[in-house]
Fold:
Amino acid sequence: MGIRRAAVAAGSVAVAAGSAAIKKVLARAPSGWGAPGGTAQKDPQRWRAVTVNRPIQELEGGVPGPLAELGDAVEVRLQQAPGDKGTELHARLTRTGHDPINGQDPLEALRSALRKAKQVAEVGYVLEPDPTATKRTPLNEPLRQATKHAGGEGRL
Amino acid sequence: MKGLVWTGVNELAVEDVPDPQIQNPGDVILKVSRTVTCGSDLHLIGGYIPFMQKGDVLGHEFLGEVVEVGPDVRNHRVGDRVVVCSFIACGSCWYCKHELYSCCDNGNPNPAIPEGLWGFPPGGCYGYSHAMGGWGGSHADYIRVPYADHGAFRVPDGVSDERALFASDAAPTGWMGADLGNVKPGDVVAVWGCGAVGQLAAGAAMLLGAERVIAIDRFDYRLRATEQHIGCETLNYEQTDVGAELRERSGGRGPDVCIEAVGMEAHSPDPSYGYDQIKHQLRLQTDRPTAVRQAIYNCRKGGTVFVLGVFGGFVDKFPLGAVMNKGLTLHSAQQHGHRYIPMLLERMERDELVTEHLATHTMPLSEAPKGYKVFKDKEDNCIRSVFLPGG
Structure:
């Protein structure tokens, strides 16, 4: 029994040490490594960007509807993308806090608007998903929740 | 309408599902004539890609008749017989403009799920889980086809439904492996897997001028079919030393191009198979990469390995040292079918590309659960089960 307790204690120490080491590595890692729950991903003031495969002149007259609909809740800037990649569309929230925008979490609303704006500029409309006819079960509830927010921020 | 739905791990049923409707101006609605099983469906059915929900309609390889068109559709009319690429691509984003259609930025309405998994989302795929868009599958009487001007292709009159069906996925996938694997005249090419995709990859390598093509499997009936219909050499990996055979048949160099067409549920006669199975079943690794390891190990120095088989997550014991020290090029993709399907249909019309032999079992959609069982268990010399909706 004593040996077992010692093993459990040693295991706990190892897990704690490993966890601390991982956190330390992630803290020093290049941007992106710390994405799961990291502050860099959740920083509400960070600029979010998509690249739109259209010339910058087409977007200078006004950003596409889904982003324009967010009004003064977001700040937008355009930048020529390098090479033949089109135009970088950058946007960030103009206010802090968690007040919903159009009923959505503000960051989810922003990311979703960027994705939709890109589709409108490139295709002409926002692709509608197929209506779901799936059945709710205890096992698929997490997936249903993930799918509900799957137009928003993606890096977990 | 009727559809084959996933109801739980290894559980399928034919049920009533809602009729699809035009939702965007670029959509068409197709009456499905033929729809076929694919080995990658088995990963979904078995729960190895855990993004299915009870009631999801399966199927991504199909052809049919256009019965309704959206107002922006220019290339199709009601009554057209079309084959549809399994991947959904807009035709307008940077990836589509560079013919990387399965990487389309605008084909997946659930981008956050694959972004979390893989960093960036690929395009959508019919009947292929909520990670790939949650699109309705083709094992149903009707299906909605978004971006139809880009993803649906008229079938020439001289090509039968039975043949054209495989232009949807298996043929372009196989062709892509040989094309992007950079197969050239004079090459020795090895292909792991003699299912439909592996056979058609071997056939593509031959049509692209490879000097010698060697396909590898363990089922004699699949090896015989490959020899008979594709015309290449074969190896049974349970009866011979594949590495030794490949080395000697390529003059001691090793194959120039190695194409893996097996995927995440690979089998091996080696003890490593038990290790991989245990880790896979305990979900300590998400995929079993046996054939990928062999392809990398046996490829010549400076050669190319193309991974055509579907993988979902993480693999163990990946031979990165062999990739690095032999200077290999490792290439992979979901299929960029839009760039190949018109050419493949022309080849089918000229009888250069034949696929009918792959459809070993044809049955009404109502028997689809049985069709998947026969396909999965490789009963009765099955290569692919084809379903006839409405039949």
Q: What stands out?
A: Residues 6-38 of chain A have pLDDT under 50 and may be disordered. The radius of gyration of chain A is 21 Å.
